[in-house]
Specification:
Shape: flat
Strand content: over 45%
InterPro entries: YTV (IPR011521)
Number of strands: 12
Pfam families: YTV
Keywords: Signal
Structural class: mainly beta
Number of helices: 3
Helix content: under 10%
Organism: Botrimarina hoheduenensis
Oligomer: single chain
Distance between the termini: 40 Å
Strand order of the largest sheet: 1-12
Largest sheet: 2 strands, antiparallel
Radius of gyration: 74 Å
Order of helices and strands: HHHEEEEEEEEEEEE
Protein name: YTV protein
């Protein structure tokens, strides 16, 4: 490959470039003379450009043609004719004969009789009586009692003491400040809680007659005595419980601090400590207790007593009795017997026969041939073009 490039001369290179760009060798030579006369060579770049050329191409397309040809066709045509024929058949003809025969049968004849049936019955009648009965019941009555009890509690009391302290350089100077503290001074309080009574299941009881007011009309109406569903309810119960009630109180408590001081002296120092003291106080306590009391009351009670009474009753009834009787009757009897007869019946029959018929028919024939037509196409072709980049000097432009 290196030996091939070494044998290339400038003339061969110029010819190859002219063929690649699309210039003739004469124009290339003229450009070389202009370059030699000026003494400077311009700069070029080679670009690829697509050129479309129009070409005519011959093509063929199929064309279909239909031709009609007359032919003679022979076909069979049906021809229908009517023919008279006879048909023989046998028929069974009914012959009826009537005769009389005796028939004995039994008849049930009704005989009616009158009887009396005992339909006596018992009537139960309610007799209502009013009686007084004694009813004892228990009532819970609350009784309040007041008593006192002792409570022991602890109290913190501050105690301040003075102490002499020998300080060489630093002396602590007392500074007293007050700090607010919240102290609980509450106590126990009695609290009464009420437990509602329980309701029992409805039971059937006898209620006496009473008068009520109608809420809609406002008139007094009387309710008759009788049995009714009654729901009983026990009385509520009261209980006393001890509950602690807090009482927060703000208390100013003195707090002593010390500030260092650079002196040499004996300084008294106040020291505060808390001393616990036990105190006793009496607190009144109110106790509620329930006392049972038995009471007696007279309750009217209505008693229903049943009295049985006999009612006599006789009901007449009509009884039907069937009596058998034998009777004779004449019954006509019809007997049917079949007699065979021969009959002749004419009928028409259609007979079909085939007749040949000649007709002329047009038969289509399809023929395909190729038709020539011309199409113009654009064929692309790539061309190398040399374009100057910039002028080499002022003389060349």
């Amino acid at each position: 490959m290196k030996a091939f490039y070494a044998r290339l001369t400038p003339a061969i290179v110029r010819s190859m470039l002219a063929v690649a760009v699309g210039l003739s060798p004469t124009s290339v030579r003229a450009q070389e003379l202009s370059i030699d006369s000026c003494g400077c060579a311009p700069a070029y770049r080679v670009e690829c450009q697509t050129v479309y050329e129009e070409r005519e191409i011959k093509c063929y397309r199929p064309v279909t043609e239909t031709n009609y040809e007359e032919r003679e066709v022979t076909r069979s045509v049906p021809v229908f004719e009517t023919k008279r024929m006879e048909r023989r058949y046998s028929v069974l003809r009914p012959v009826r004969e009537t005769s009389v025969r005796e028939e004995r049968y039994t008849v049930q004849r009704p005989v009616y009789e009158t009887r009396y049936r005992d339909a006596s019955y018992d009537v139960v009648r309610n007799v209502t009586e009013t009686q007084m009965r004694e009813e004892r019941y228990t009532v819970q009555r609350p009784v309040c009692e007041t008593s006192e009890r002792q409570e022991t509690y602890l109290v913190q009391r501050p105690v301040t003491e003075t102490v002499q302290q020998q300080q060489v350089r630093t002396v602590m100077r007392p500074v007293t400040t007050y700090q607010t503290q919240v102290v609980d001074q509450g106590g126990y309080v009695d609290q009464v809680s009420v437990t509602p009574g329980s309701k029992s299941w409805p039971s059937l009881r006898w209620l006496p007659g009473q008068q009520t007011i109608d809420p809609l009309t406002g008139q007094v109406q009387t309710v008759r005595p009788g049995l009714s569903w009654v729901t009983t309810e026990t009385p509520p119960q009261q209980q006393v419980q001890r509950v602690y009630r807090p009482n927060p109180v703000s208390v100013q408590t003195p707090v002593t601090g010390y500030v260092p001081q650079q002196v040499t002296e004996c300084v008294p120092v106040n020291v505060t400590r808390m001393v616990t003291e036990q105190q006793v106080r009496r607190v009144p306590v109110q106790v509620v207790r329930m006392v049972n009391e038995e009471r007696v009351r007279q309750v009217p009670v209505q008693v229903c007593r049943q009295v049985v009474e006999r009612v006599e009753r006789r009901i007449p009834e009509q009884v039907c009795r069937m009596v058998s009787e034998e009777r004779v009757r004449k019954v006509p009897v019809t007997t049917c017997r079949m007699v065979r007869e021969e009959r002749v019946e004419p009928y028409d029959v259609q007979v079909c026969r085939m007749v040949e018929k000649v007709e002329k028919v047009s038969v289509p024939t399809t023929t395909t041939r190729l038709e020539e037509y011309t199409v113009t196409q654009r064929v692309p072709r790539t061309v190398m073009v040399r374009r100057p980049i910039e002028p080499a000097c002022d003389v060349c432009g």
